[in-house]
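Annex B. Sample input.
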Amino acid sequence: MKPHTIFLSSVLWCGAVGCWAGAQADPFQRTAPAQALPSLRGGTPSAPAATTPSPAAPAPASAKAEATFGNPRTSSDGSQTRVVFDLTPGVSYTLNPTFGGLRLDVKGARVVPAVTLRLGASVSEYRAGNGSVTLFTPFPLSLTDGWRASEATLASGGRVLILEFGPTLSGGASASLKALVRTATTPAPPTLALTATPPIPKALADQLPPGDAIAPADRAALPSPPALPGHNPNKLSALAGQVSPGPGAGAALSAPRVGKNPGLTRVVLDLPPGTTYRLIPGGVGLRVELTGVTAAALSAQNISPEVKAWRYEPSRDGVTVTLLTGTPLTERSGWRALLVPPLEGSTLSRLAIDLSPALADLTPLSPQEKVLAAVPPTPVSRGTALLALATSFAKPRVVLDAGHGGKDPGAVGSIVEKEVTLDVALRVRDFLQAAGVDVVLTRDSDRHLHPDKVTDLSLRAGMGKAPGTELFVSIHVNAMDAGAALRGYGIETWWQNNHPLSSSLAGLLQQHLVETTGAYSRGLRSNRSLAVLRESRIPAALVEIGFASHPVDGLNLKDTHYLDRVALGIARGIRAALVGGVTASGPVSGS
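Annex B, continued. Sample output.
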């Protein structure tokens, strides 16, 4: 699917042709500049960029056979990372910005195979091989945001490709390289291409969570919405603020500008100097109280899937703007907002508001949140009846099941399910072990328990049958087919009638997961007979921590702070079950 494009309903105070620098701060502007070349650290100043894309001229066949591409040089400056590739004559490439990073498809040279976990603060992984190079970033890239690309000629005469990455960078490809940018999104980097698994038999599909029954080929995520310029995901949006003072107070407020993206709608209010605002999230939408402006009573309906309607209500001191969403918002979920400074030649600041039920809390855990209260040990009677008074204490044991693994990738979209479930399981283990819980993992690496799916599920469930095991929790990522991907987001927890306390365990997990992450709650589910739960003989539950197929929820699953919050929510739910007696052996002492 081609990426959705946000169109302006009107030209925004940028009459001069050369005002690109200001336009890049506009939440709706997505145009590339004629870019100045960055200087190379430790090298000679670069010459002006070529006016035509690489290659400059064809090379002899013998040179092409020996040409290689890769082995980049890197440097970092704060949050920005620079990657420099040498360009051999005859080499050509295309630039493919995606939700997970930048991919270069290379022709005319052999790509040097390599895997490097970190090149800098803004390049979390480097993978090369099979004609492609992928630089993974911890933030999404649009056509112009999050990266820059240009070519330069060194004093030695050699040419280089300079790539820069950073969460606040704008520009994308320079004017001379713009033709090399490919706008079609790629479902997954080439290195994540997985061998297609055989179709799941219907009898088995009925025993799996809904997302597992979808063929991997249908799980390509929709293109992610553009990042909000200047937004810091590590900080919650401010609930109140004021535009810098100046002439313009009391000016009329124009109708909001609306940008529609897959899974997210952006609403922009143009505010004159001196305007103050207060944002009040609620159960049915967001109320924005403005003072220092005037407006007529305006309204519109059926705006987008995320915004059912908006309306202006004049008040004595200003205007109240109501954005009806149809889904509940909290102070840290369902929305985000940022006050963007005026464009060049304008006095109006822009309050940009993103609305999506899939927007969750991506802020880092505080040191206090990371500490899980200790779980009391469980009394264990040992010996014969004559020695019944000889009682010892043991750590309560919990089995964590990281769904899928090995040849079974699970959902493949913005993330690969088997990788995320293992990542979360390891984080949960660390939280629980620090609180005095004995944790058993069904897998601690990328492997399956058995090549046959039925046997694999049975082996996982069987690990909960060891004496002294109190709980079984399976961790999964959900997915929907491409035609329904926008309808799937949030967290849900499954349980079965395998044990009288399984529903209670599921309820505690769902409650703590939603409280800790701010994610949309899809509630509890039990309308499918899931094999991994059905065969357990202790309280068991399966958590679906998000949707790989959703353009916004998929970004949540790529965020390390969100995964921390997911892991803490699961750990808190397990702790609550252990100290509350929702276990195989019943209540334990203490709380």
